[in-house]
Specification:
This protein is of the alpha+beta class and about 170 residues long. Helix content is about 20%, strand content about 35%. It has three helices and eight strands. The model has no long low-confidence stretch (mean pLDDT about 95). The protein binds nickel (II) ion.
């Protein structure tokens, strides 16, 4: 188990466009393992490599079934992710971020998105997502592009409730 430190605003790495991954060797695999350990340690729902001060296009998203809480959460590792379709239908929801401690914000996101990228072995991936899963993917892919939820938030407030930052 190896966790890494999460950088917080205003660290400049959070504002850089992350580099595309071309080498799927041991260094990437170690980064992914450390990201998973860090995500679980922080009880987050998502994490992007730039949050560990690694400017690479690697994201994790973990979520359970919205209908059935008995189903264990599933972890998605996506390399070089891109949103190739945004639904026009938007939904407003609350988000927090591990790199912006103590705050939450209300953000409009597309209700459904299609994400394309690669898995941790470099094989192509394409996923259709909706609801909370679509929201986390949009948040993490923003990180890859140097965008923070606070840039998009309609309102930001001090978090005093339990939440799963991403
Ligand atoms: Ni975040």
């Amino acid at each position: 188990m190896a966790t890494r430190e999460i950088i917080i605003v205003p660290h400049p790495t959070l504002r850089k466009k992350a580099e595309k991954v071309t080498d799927f060797g041991p260094e990437l695999q170690q980064l992914i393992e450390d990201m998973i350990d860090t995500l679980h340690e922080e009880s987050g729902s998502g994490l992007a490599a730039p949050q560990l001060n690694v400017s690479k296009q690697v994201i994790l998203v973990e979520f359970g079934s919205e209908e059935d809480e008995e189903i264990p959460p599933k972890l998605y590792v996506t390399i070089n992710p891109k949103i190739t379709r945004f639904s026009q239908q938007m939904v407003t929801g609350a988000e927090g971020c591990l790199s912006i401690p103590g705050l939450m914000g209300e953000v409009d996101r597309s209700e459904e998105v299609v994400v394309e990228g690669q898995d941790r072995n470099g094989e192509p991936l394409k996923m259709s997502l909706q609801g909370w899963a679509a929201r986390i993917f949009q948040h993490e892919i923003d990180h890859i592009n140097g965008i923070l939820y606070s840039d998009r938030a309609i309102e930001v407030w001090e978090a005093d409730e339990e939440y799963n930052p991403v």
